[in-house]
């Protein structure tokens, strides 16, 4: 690990708004059922993110959200797992109004769903005290209708050449990043469609840059479990580590003076990880 990478862990992880503490900084990779293992065992390795949605059942608004990422947390001590579905963001709206369909004081709205709860983020122009709120599923859009599609066929891209060729061919690409905390016995796989893939023919390197994703604090158990999540972006160019930047209160400075704070992706940090890159076959 380079000095700069150690600095990311020290400076970035210490400032996480989700409460990531020294225990989480000690994350280590650990074997889990990622894509290559799932394929070998005959299981479907990832979602088809072009065809996966969650839909409400309330009569006043049977809203449908596009699923943008999935985070699965495994408790090795209890032998249990929990899935979280991060949905696409939208804007605050006067839903079904006759006119003025967007609120004047507008904000970004992004929901994450788990069994029994929604975690909803509202990012306003100013620092919002209600930025992050947890609601029971039945109190928002009623019980959810899960419309998830598994990828019909997947190839593991385990070399730079395969990643280069799949990128050039315009194939949908999905990444899986596993992080773990041996102290708590918790580990997580963050799965998401790769929105930006960088390819260097000169250096024979790739680099994934995508988000937002649901980043978990694995330092302890949370009640409810969805409370462990923060919004983040993930970046990696090797199979053994990933860098993250988390949305959190961030100072805005001018002429060396702090003028205010806003919610912004800041304080990047790095963690040991196990990264898998997948190409979803065209139908």
Quote the average pLDDT.
87
The total count of strands amounts to 17
Would you identify the regions where 5 or more consecutive residues have pLDDT less than 50? 1-32
Structural class: mainly beta
> How does the major sheet shape up?
12 strands, antiparallel
| Spatial shape | globular
- SSE string, helix = H, strand = E? HHHEEEEEEEEEHEEEEEEEE
How is this structure best summarized?
This protein has about 280 residues and is mainly β.
Structure description:
The structure is a single chain. The chain is mainly beta and 283 residues long. It is 11% helix and 46% strand. It is built from four helices and 17 strands. It has helices spanning 3-14, 22-25, 35-40, 160-168, and strands at 53-55, 64-75, 80-87, 90-91, 108-114, 117-123, 132-136, 145-147, 154-156, 173-181, 186-193, 196-200, 205-216, 229-236, 241-254, 257-272, 274-280. A hairpin with an 8-residue loop joins strand 1 and strand 2 (64-75). The radius of gyration is 19 Å and the shape is globular. 35% of the residues are buried. Mean pLDDT is 87; it is low at 1-32.
